[in-house]
Each structure stands twice: as C-alpha cells, then as structure tokens.
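Appendix B, record 7
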Amino acid sequence: MAENERVPEYDSRDCFKEAVCIDAMRVYDSCSDKDCLEDLRVLFPAARQALVDSATNARIRDVSVLTVYIDLQPIPFNKGFYSVDMTFFFDVAVDLFGGPTASPVPVNGVAVFNKKVILYGSEGNVKLFSSGRGAEDPLPGEDCRVLPKATVQVAEPVALSARLCDRPQCGCEPYCRIPESIAARYGGGFEDCQGHNALYATIGLFTIVQLVRNVQMLIPAYDFCVPEKECVASSDNPCELFRRIDFPTEEFFPPRAGDLPDGSRCCGR
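Structure tokens (predicted):
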C-alpha cells in the first residue's frame, strides 16, 4: 500500500556520487487564480432546450471541466513575455423543475469561459528536432523560434448556483462556438440560439498557469531508484482482501473532547 512505502534517507556528505545532466521542463513563470464565474450562459442542444423552455426553476447539481483550449502568443515590444489565452469548456449538470412532470428533470449543457494571463517565458531562438517526430522544414516567413509550453492545472470546479431567465429580458447574447468534438457528446445542434428560457450558472474555479521550457540542468545524483518492496499479488478471494483491511477502531470509539484539535472544540470549553 502507498502508506507503507518508504523513501530512503541519504546523507549528502556520504552518498553523493556524481553530478548528472538531465533534460527537464523548467518552470519560468506561474500564477494561481481563484475566479467566481458569475452568470455563465449554459448552452443546450435543440432537443434539450425544449425542457429548459418548459421549466420554471433550476438547481445546479455538478460542474466538470471538459477541456481547455490554450493559445500562446508573444507580447510585442516586451521580450520574453507571452499572452496565454485559455478557453474553458464546462459540463454543467442541472435539475429542472416545473415541467410536464412533477419530479426534477436532470439535463446537461455546456458553459464557456475565456481567460487571459501574461507570464514570463524567456526567449529561445533555436529549432528543436527529435527522433520519432515528423519534423518538417518551416515554411517561408514562419516563426522558427521555440516557444515555451503553457500548462493549465484546474481543480474540480465548484457548482454554486443556477438560474433561469426569460429570453426577452436577457436577450440573445453572442457566445463562443462549441467545437464539434464537444457538441457530438450532446447530440449537436448548439447553433440555434432561439428559445424561451436561458439558463445561467455561477461556478467557482481554481487554476494554476505555468510557462515551462525544455532545459538541461545539472543535479546531484545519489543512487539509482531501486524498489525496496516486493510486489503483492492481487487475489480474487474477497475474504483474503477483507483480512488486509485494518480494524476501524475509531468508528467504534468516537474521540473525546480532549482528543479533538483546538480548532474543533466548542467556544464554551
């Protein structure tokens, strides 16, 4: 099990063997952000838009990130800095109330959010070729510089709220075109903006954006990573698997007030 794994402790004065050169991705700049995405338009294909039009209320159930499109462009007259344009596509699950049935009707739609940050990614004027890749000569006039790589880490979004809005009141605002690969998951038909109701969701988003470059670094080496534990063969016997589970003593003996952390005690202690 993971909790039984042990990392050997080394004394650098005794175990340092050599300095080795590795090829790694170095982070040149990064930023983290906490965004409250208020009233994002949730789009539905035509077949599901009819359910939204007949509903009188909505409740958000869950939100997940389908994908993130990333576009990286150098900033003119500001060498080494790059604009990272991100387009987030969310799958929004909601329950609709007040339709033909008394029970809530679950439906899924797509919400889109655009975000831009500027980070330092340094400069590079080399061409990178490696085996196993079909590298071709650049076209005339093409920028041959090796750009940094932009990465976006996204935590699980927080589904905060959803609301229905009458279309004449909210209007029919323009929105980003849904890519075909995403639209196919919902049966397509996102092009039509007509409908009686529009649904808006509020989502909490946590992101980390990084600009990294491939560099060669000199690091100290101590030893090879030789596994110290034997692999445990899995068994199909359910009783054998059950015997490996520790007895849940804490479930039978709840903690006393004195065992709780200071922050968990009552104010009147």
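Remarks on this record: The radius of gyration is 27 Å. The chain is about 10% helix and 45% strand.
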